[in-house]
Design goal:
1150 residues, 41 strands, alpha+beta, six-stranded mixed beta sheet, RNA-binding
Length: 1150
RNA sequence: GCGCACGUAGCUCAGUUGGUUAGAGCGCGUCGCUGAUAACGACGAGGUCCGUGGUUCGAAUCCACGCGUGCGCACCA
């Protein structure tokens, strides 16, 4: 038995109770148990950091991450969902520093590394509760209790294992790298941080002469925007393929060498004509020696020679070298190289070093200290901050005649994002790298096999990123992170890597473990996991295998926390120390999803690590097969026009500013607080509303507006419409005592059609009325469509399908069928068919929407199956409907679509002629372009008659007085065949009489035309016929039909219209008097107009039955007033422009 | 500066391998329905498909250039 539900449902409240139901009954666990042993669908959770509050963007990723696992689970897969938390790294340290009111490394050291990391460890859980609440409230089913945590010992050891693997294969190395250095803060910054701080500035740029050693009065001219790097010059670079010109400058005694193509540009710059003396190719310049502008190093090493590996000797530096990156886009085509202060410069140095015998090549020259000030190497500038040295250096060059030209150069330059006055410099720093460049091709190949959504990410953004791969700078000179598991022999400097804590303890002569033990003793609260962290792990040393008596000591660095996240596919299981089985069954992932900012983050770290560790075992792609790359979520807010009041909600703006405000959109910003907390959305509209909005409004990779109004608006168009259908069903099912599946003998499970078919009153679909067959056919089509789309990860398309179905169900099936539910015979088979059909639609729909709006689905399922023994406890324990239970009838769908179109055109025609639907009309003429569906339409004319309230309907596909025909070529067909003749053909067809052409076609089966003397035969497939309504008719036209109304009103039609109006008035009265649906009433109508009375009398039967009136009196009053005795049951109103009074009395309840 | 994406109605977005009348929802306007009822529905107005040029019988769709927006990369000396 069904209980009527209210239409004013409060979704948020309903969701809260469903959350409780899920929790109390362990539904999520059951959904997994149910699929025990099934084919796995593997999902990886990209770990969020829980040391900040979750924001709306996280809701988007979490909603998508929930959708597909739920769907696959219902499709019969086992989808484990292990949560995870990213817990290491600079963001955590920064957060703790803020709390402590410190920020430099010295201050951290002073505070103490030990208490510092203890604070870090605690801080990562600060917002855990909020995260868990948002996760749960959104309906994101994921196993939070089994979450992996990147600081846990097992995770750390797993990372160690992988690093040891790379180390042993020679892929993890220590090297110098040029990093972005914040000199004032004494630390390198990550590329992300650097990217935050770019700003446009004007820097001095100088053109400097480098005189050649072996060619008197001849100089190279180089250009640089960082004069302060000149004292550290080591090479000048040219490109072998570029032509260089020897030129004479009238104001310079030297002959100058610059790129030939730049001679003119440079001449214009200095406003003097440069005369080209000769040109040489770059390769002829390579190897030439020059005198650098400062002799701090040159004076000592200028003559230094080194032995070449290839034999012979060469000067170690201050030579011209070739470099690929040299272009003539700017400067002079000759590049000053200061390897200490530029990454590409540094690479050149390394390459040069490599051609010399060990120890014979050039070293790195660096006249600047880590504090960004010149060292004693450059005594003239010692202690001067590099940027402050630009000016004196230029002056010195000018004084010595080396400065050929100087100008301002405007460009973007990075500054510290936390101290925005401090420019960053590139600076050499020793750090650890992973040789990812050796795997560039492998990563590209692996990438090419990944199913990216949208597709262009693969070859586009991600592929490009891989193409320009550089070795992964792994180490961080910080505190809170996975310690780099490399121990160094204090005597020989030889190193080895350790793959686990146990392995470490098994080393000979281990010492220092007591540091941890003592700390733990002193503070038993300390998490056991901290023992593999700084500073405890640093204390552990062992006997060196490389030199007797020497100790092995860990290097001081921790690693980039992105490595942690990229290692999660195996580290989440502690693999290979533990969890071998889980790893093997849960790798690679079938599906992951994050926003596009993870391209260089988690997507890359995963792919790189996986490719390096596992190669082609298993086959590519791994570690993930499919990835939905989400767009960024944007904020929407309102502000006053003068911009004084900003970041308001729409409501607040309206309240505070009247209508005088503007809507703004932009990036979400924690600082600006330009978005509302997801919790507010949950409380006001519910999680399903948010989910549906996110899924159904655009393809997931588009950026999406987090708009409260849009979220609210997404409710009525789908969820509420479905709920109203459900409510309709329950109202009548209760009235009629429709038993539904409770009458079924034997076991019930998922209420599939086969189970329902066992009910006595359930008839085969083929025996039911056409509308029933139609909606079930649409249902089957929808199931297949949704499944096909979801299998392709097209959630947006699936929502479209679901939306269209709910629309058809609500706005056609239910609307056209209402009368069937009102029939007084409770056992009427047609009525029972209607119930069963609607019931089945609702049951299947609740399953279909379960992954999308899990709460609404659960609410529907719960009430549709209430009291049924044996039925699955939750819709999420059901199998997803695939549509194979009902043969879908494409022809029927098409025909019903046409019928709906005809109804719509009819309404349009009525609108045009201002004839409301309640006024019956005598006749409708429908003219169709083709006769293929006419017989069917004729057999269904009752539907259209009722829908359009007309007495008669007439279909034709032949000539019609309401319609003109025009014939057009079928371009798709004829295009390839007649090509260039098409425009003329089109014109010819247009010029001819449409009716005549159609005549010809029906007589001969073809049309023959001569175009440009060429005869063309067109058959039925080659033309398309268009209809249009002739002027002067109340008609409306669609693509393939025209609907025309006979607008003539006879007295009888007018009477019928009056009756319809009367019915409506009485119904309205019933409602206002709060009659029950089943109450019988007695009606008295008072009027002075006898024609009106006649109209009512003539339709007495109809009015009485429609309004459940057991008595209908029409009283014609002759007196002046129709106000009758002030009876409380009597009401004054208007009917057909006449005043009347209606008295309504309830006679009996049902 | 380079790369990737995007640019379609007032707003948010769809638009299949190019096919000649470009769609949806919201908003707006008009109206209807009234036994789902503080719900619902219909109809309508509204478009130089960013611009220019090209390919083609035919371009929102393909190509080139430009403009604008977003994101990423980058002192390419």
């Amino acid at each position: 038995m069904f209980r009527a539900v209210k239409t004013d449902v409060k979704f948020p409240n309903q969701e809260e109770s469903i959350l409780k139901f899920w929790k109390d009954n362990d539904i999520y666990k059951k959904s997994l148990l149910l699929r025990h042993g099934s084919k796995p669908f593997v999902f990886f959770e990209g770990p969020p950091t829980a040391n900040g509050l979750p924001h709306p963007g996280h809701c988007l990723t979490r909603a998508i991450k929930d959708l597909f696992p739920r769907y696959r689970t219902m499709r019969g897969y086992l989808c484990n969902r292990k949560a995870g938390w990213d817990t290491h790294g600079l963001p955590v340290e920064v957060e703790v520093c803020k709390e402590l009111g410190i920020h430099s490394k010295e201050e951290i050291e002073a505070f103490g590394v030990e208490p510092f990391i203890a604070k870090c460890q605690q801080s990562v859980w600060r917002y855990m509760r909020e995260w868990e609440r948002v996760t749960e409230r959104l309906g994101f089913w994921i196993d939070l209790s089994e979450a992996y945590v990147t600081y846990h010992q097992s995770f750390v050891e797993s990372v160690w294992w992988s690093l040891k693997n790379l180390f042993d294969r020679g892929l993890l190395y220590r090297g110098h790298k040029i990093v972005w250095w914040w000199a004032q803060g004494g630390t390198a910054l990550s590329s992300g941080e650097v990217g935050q701080g770019y700003r446009e500035v004007a820097d001095p740029s100088v053109y400097v002469r480098f005189p050649l050693v072996d060619e008197p009065n001849t100089s190279l001219v180089v250009w640089t925007t960082t004069p302060w790097t000149l004292p550290s010059n080591q090479f000048a670079a040219v490109h072998e393929g570029i032509k260089y010109a020897y030129c004479r400058d009238p104001e310079s005694k030297d002959t100058l060498i610059v790129a030939a193509d730049l001679v003119q540009t440079l001449g214009e710059k200095i406003k003097r004509e440069l005369t080209v003396l000769k040109t040489v190719s770059g390769s002829e310049l390579v190897g030439r020696r020059y005198v650098p502008p400062f002799d701090y190093y040159y004076s000592k090493m200028g003559m230094q020679l080194g032995s070449l590996l290839a034999g012979g000797e060469q000067h170690t530096q201050w030579r011209v070298v070739h470099a690929d990156f040299v272009t003539i886009d700017s400067g002079t085509g000759i590049v000053h190289l200061a390897p200490a202060f530029g990454e590409v410069d540094y690479e050149v140095l390394m390459a040069q070093k490599a051609i010399f015998a060990q120890g014979q090549g050039p070293g790195l020259i660096c006249a600047v200290g880590p504090d960004g000030k010149f060292t004693s190497d450059a005594p003239d500038y010692q202690g001067v901050w590099v940027k402050d040295a630009d000016r004196p250096i230029s002056r010195s060059l000018r004084e010595r005649g080396l400065l050929w030209h100087q100008e301002q150069y405007v460009h973007d330059y990075p500054f510290c994002w936390r101290a925005s006055e401090d420019p960053l410099i590139q600076y050499p720093r020793e750090s650890w790298f992973i040789r990812t460049t050796a795997f560039r091709d492998a990563m590209l190949e692996n990438n090419s096999k990944i199913g990216w959504l949208p597709e262009h990410i693969g070859p586009g953004r991600f592929g490009n990123f891989l193409e320009s791969n550089v070795d992964w700078a792994l180490s961080r000179e910080r505190y809170w992170g996975t310690p780099l598991p490399v121990w160094v022999c204090q005597a020989t400097g030889k190193m080895e890597s350790i793959g686990s804590y146990e392995e470490l303890l098994a080393k000979p002569g281990v010492q220092g473990t007591e540091v941890w033990l003592r700390a733990k003793e002193a503070n038993p609260e300390l998490a056991e996991d901290l023992k593999v962290h700084k500073p405890y792990i640093d204390a552990v040393t062992y006997q060196s295998p490389f030199a007797s008596g020497a100790r092995m000591q860990r290097v001081s660095e921790v690693i980039d926390c992105w490595y942690d996240s990229g290692a999660m596919p195996f580290a989440q299981w502690g693999y290979p120390h533990t969890g071998k089985e889980q790893f093997e069954s849960q790798f690679p992932a079938d599906f992951i999803s994050e926003a596009i900012d993870q391209t260089r983050g988690w997507f890359y770290s995963q792919l790189a690590i996986s490719t390096m560790l596992f190669g082609k075992q298993p086959e590519y792609p791994h570690p993930f097969k499919n990835c939905i790359v989400l767009g960024l979520m944007l904020a929407e807010w309102y502000e006053s026009k003068d911009g004084k009041q900003r970041f308001l909600t729409e409501e607040d703006a309206r309240g505070a500013l009247g209508g005088d405000f503007v809507q703004k959109t932009g990036k979400m910003s924690k600082q600006l607080r330009n978005y509302r907390s997801p919790q507010e959305i949950f409380d006001r509209y519910g999680a399903d509303a948010l989910r549906w909005y996110l899924f159904a409004n655009q393809a997931p990779w588009n950026s999406i507006l987090y708009s409260e109004r849009a979220i609210r608006d997404s409710i009525p168009e789908f969820m509420l419409r479905l709920w109203n259908v459900f409510s309709f069903f329950t109202i009548y099912a209760e009235i009629d005592g429709f038993a539904g599946p409770s009458e079924i003998q034997g076991g019930l499970d998922q209420l599939d059609a086969s189970e329902l078919a066992r009910a006595k009153t359930y008839r085969p679909v083929s025996d039911r009325s056409e509308l029933d067959r139609w909606i079930l056919s649409e249902l089957g089509t929808t199931c297949r469509d949704v499944v096909g789309k979801m299998d392709r990860y097209d959630s947006y398309g699936a929502c479209e399908s679901l939306h269209a179905f709910v629309d058809a169900l609500s706005n056609w099936y239910v609307r056209r069928n209402r009368a069937r539910y009102w029939s007084s015979d409770k056992q009427d088979q047609d009525k029972l068919d209607a119930y069963w059909t609607l019931y089945e639609c609702l049951v299947v729909t609740s399953k279909l929407i379960a992954p999308f709006t899990p709460f609404l689905a659960e609410a529907l399922w719960g009430q549709l199956t209430s009291g049924l023994a044996g039925v699955r406890q939750s819709v999420h324990l059901c199998d997803y409907p695939t549509g194979d239970f009902a043969a879908s009838d494409v022809l029927l769908n098409e025909r019903m679509g046409l019928l709906r179109q005809i109804a719509s055109l009819g309404r349009s025609a009525r609108m045009d002629s201002k004839l409301k639907v309640r006024q019956p009309l005598s006749r409708v003429e429908v003219t169709l372009a083709s006769d293929s569906h006419i017989d069917w339409l004729v057999s269904h004319d009752d539907i259209v008659r009722e829908e359009l309230n007309v007495k008669e309907i007439h279909y034709t596909s032949g000539s019609s007085p309401f319609v003109t025909y025009s014939v057009q070529p079928n371009f798709r067909n004829l295009g390839p065949r007649v090509g260039p003749l098409l425009p003329k053909l089109k014109a010819a067809l247009g010029a001819a009489s449409g009716a005549e052409l159609m005549d010809q076609m029906s007589r001969n089966g073809k049309i023959v035309l001569a175009i440009d003397g060429k005869e063309l035969q067109l058959d039925g497939q080659d033309i398309q016929v268009r209809l249009s309504a002739k002027e002067g008719w109340a008609a409306a036209q669609g693509k393939s039909c025209v609907v025309a109304l006979n607008t003539e009103l006879t007295p009888e039609l007018i009477r019928d219209g009056i009756a319809k109006d009367a019915i409506r008035l009485i119904q309205d009265l019933r409602k206002r008097r709060q009659c029950n649906y089943t109450d019988r009433i007695a009606i008295k109508v008072f009027t002075k107009n006898s024609e009106l009375a006649q109209a009512l009398e003539a339709n007495r039967q109809l009015i009485a039955s429609e309004t459940l009136a057991s008595n209908l009196d029409v009283v014609v009053l002759s007196s002046e007033s129709i106000e009758v005795g002030g009876s409380p049951q009597c009401e004054l109103t208007e009917l057909a422009d006449e005043q009347i009074a209606i008295e309504l009395k309830v006679v009996a309840g049902d």
